[in-house]
Amino acid sequence: MEAPGSPYASSPESAPKRAPRSPPQQQQSPSEEGDDKEKPTHLRFLVSNTAAGCIIGKGGSTINDFQSQSGARIQLSRSNEFFPGTNDRIIMVSGLFDEVMKAMELILEKLLAEGEEFNEAEARPKVRLVVPNSSCGGIIGKGGATIKSFIEESHAGIKISPQDNNYVGLHDRLVTITGTFDNQMNAIDLILKKLSEDVHYPPNLSSPFPYADFVL
């Protein structure tokens, strides 16, 4: 809940500890996997204003703690900066692969504990990643082979939105992931590894919100 007169949200009690998560198996040599994990990378995803406040915490305490624990940088779009066509803000997590994954784990555990990002119709949590259209082909794969293998390995639901032509210059799409916490984390692990292999996927962005000048 937003504190009166403050842009930050109060920081609820931390989520219960979970057993270490086993990442999905990858058909990749140790040297190749190590190279990808040593490269800077990033993920962006959507959250409601309320959930954003939960992640920030009172006086920024929660987001600072998450950054300290993970080593990743966590940035949010402003309270009035929404992903085009939604009322949701954007979180950008950047750092090395393991740092980004640790930050995602901390953030999603927090949201799961707070229940802010539950889909009320299905009573299932969901994560909506923001992915460049140019990188979606790699996630889909030839004939949908890659996304099918990701679904089978992670046991998560993974859907990629069609490109939205209502916004001039919008070249991002939403990758929606549903399932249990572990299912979602496994799917994010697979997707981030695939994005990290994409030479056209930027290691970082200057801002989580590059849509200020877009025209409807």
TrEMBL record:
PROSITE patterns: KH_TYPE_1. Keywords: Repeat, RNA-binding. One of its GO terms (molecular function) is RNA binding. It comes from the Eukaryota. The keyword RNA-binding applies. Residues 39-112, 123-196 form the K Homology domain. Residues 1-39 are annotated as: Disordered. Pfam families: KH_1. InterPro entries: KH_dom (IPR004087), KH_dom_type_1 (IPR004088), KH_dom_type_1_sf (IPR036612). This is Protein BTR1. It comes from Zea mays (Maize). The lineage of its organism: Eukaryota, Viridiplantae, Streptophyta, Embryophyta, Tracheophyta.
